[in-house]
Design brief:
Distance between the termini: 28 Å
Helix content: 25-40%
Mean pLDDT: 92
């Protein structure tokens, strides 16, 4: 996955989150939100859009998504942002669609195609013309080669044949990044996400260089419930330990200072997942199953459900760490508002189907709330970490963390022959489909994680994944 923590699109998205969080914290959202796009882009403010009006329009729709709405929810383009705040105050249910395309920002990518560049030397051999089987490649004497797009099928044979590397493939970044073909251009030239195909891995959001793909947020509802005095409990994913430069215990204290009644580590549920998954693995092996895959990654489960149904019988039925933690909390806190603090959009999709979880707050949103609250995290007293959590529960944040946990729990680790799928790329998905179709694999325990490096590299993380992993390691011992 592309590094999402250091580019201009990320800065714009996080600026919107911070300005929105500030209005929420000050309880001035409905009163002042219509000014937000104008505060971001004054007449003399540098921007990368064609004009300041375009920049403001994009900011408006990104803000609308951050308020928890799909861009398609817009009924009248003259409705101000304050109108959607008013609706959000009355909102009780959300849809399963967690990603939305800002059409105002999605207008600069041409359809994926092969292009002849000026590196073409008009060579005598014409290898590109002979390579093309559809007659799409033409060349006249002393002229550069030309591709007839009406005949081209994007096979790439011409590019492979060119000795000068003069033919290039110009992709649509979001389409190229999506491993399941869930996003494509409509007749209006704007990308559209097919919810029946989308696995909510977040790769399209990170790949888009124009910031056209936004993630729905429920930051407003969470802070509203805190303000209303409700019992609101934060469940923090194991990868949170590597996101901030301050001590992990102090970050947990900072979350409480935002108004959360309590903070619980999802690593507690990860320990349960390890125990149950280890037991299930041993039972399946005794029954003669060829292999079993892990089940904690939401995007992986979505992939199986929507694209590889034949793999379902090989996926562990063990619940995710989030599910176990929420279930435990719900048994004792029946009426509490339970919020998952998460590194990815995948958990939003999982939470939507889990009655024990009310909302999901991303790391980017948490960082915005800290900023808006002018939180001095370093000055806080650290929360004492839960001593009942075994080290490997926090290790779920890194790739191979689940595997290491199961091996540490199994009575005979040597019986576990593992294979780690480090990221759901198109190539890895083809490999997994082959395992499912053949009913055999080169290992009997397969860990699958959507994000390369694990949850520390989720689409909503705010720190370099390698740095985050190093920060978490001391707490996993």
């Amino acid at each position: 996955m592309a590094e999402q923590y250091n580019n201009n699109v990320v800065e714009i998205r996080r600026t919107i989150l911070k300005l929105l969080a500030k209005l929420i914290i000050k309880d001035e959202l409905e009163e002042k939100i219509d000014r937000l796009p104008f505060e971001m882009y004054k007449k003399d403010t540098p921007h990368t859009r064609c004009c300041v009006h375009k920049a403001r329009a994009v900011a408006k729709y990104m803000t609308m998504a951050t308020l928890g709405y799909n861009i398609d929810d817009e009924k009248d383009e003259f409705d101000p942002l304050s109108h959607y705040v008013h609706l959000a105050k009355q909102r009780e249910e959300s849809t399963e669609v967690m990603l939305t395309v800002v059409d105002e920002a999605c207008s600069s990518c041409v359809k994926s195609s092969y292009i002849v560049t000026n590196l073409c030397r008009s060579c005598t051999a014409h290898p590109c013309t002979y390579a093309c089987k559809k007659g799409a490649m033409t060349k006249h004497e002393h002229e550069q080669a030309h591709i007839d797009t009406s005949k081209c099928i994007n096979c790439g044979l011409c590019m492979q044949a060119c000795p000068y590397h003069a033919i290039i493939f110009q992709p649509v970044p979001c389409e190229e990044a999506c491993p399941v073909g869930a996003i494509s251009k409509g007749e209006d030239g704007v990308e559209h996400i097919d919810p029946t195909k989308c696995i909510y891995c977040g790769k399209c959001k990170i790949a888009c260089p124009f910031g056209a793909i936004s993630e729905k947020s429920f930051m407003f509802e969470i802070m509203r419930d805190i303000r209303l005095g409700k019992e609101v409990i934060a469940m923090v994913a194991p990868s949170l330990g590597g996101q901030f430069k301050e001590d992990y215990g102090k970050v947990l204290t900072a979350i409480k200072k935002l108004g959360f009644t309590d903070v619980v580590e999802v690593a507690k549920g990860a320990n349960v997942t390890t125990e149950v998954e280890t037991k299930e693995f041993l039972e399946r092996m005794e029954e003669g199953a060829p292999f079993m895959t892990t089940s904690c990654c939401s995007a992986w489960r979505n992939l199986v459900q929507k694209h590889i149904p034949e793999m379902a019988k090989y996926v562990s039925t063990t619940l995710t760490p989030m599910a176990y933690t929420a279930k435990w909390l719900r048994e004792t806190k029946k009426d509490a508002i339970i919020v998952m603090v998460s590194p990815c959009v995948g958990k939003r999709s999982e939470a939507h189907t889990n009655p024990d979880v009310n909302y999901v707050l991303s790391y980017e949103e948490l960082d915005a709330l800290f900023w808006a609250s002018e939180m001095d995290i370093e000055s806080l007293e650290p929360t004492v970490l839960d001593s009942t959590i075994l080290g490997h529960g926090r290790g779920f944040a890194m790739i191979a963390g689940v595997t290491a946990s199961v091996k540490a729990t199994a009575p005979d680790p040597s019986m576990i022959h593992d294979l780690v799928i480090d990221g759901l790329s198109k190539q890895n998905i083809r490999q997994l489909k082959l395992f499912a179709q053949k009913g055999e694999a080169p290992a009997n325990f397969i860990e699958v994680m959507s994000c390369p490096g694990g949850c520390v590299n989720g689409c909503d993380t705010i720190n370099n994944p390698k740095t985050a992993a190093r920060q978490i390691l001391p707490t996993t011992k």
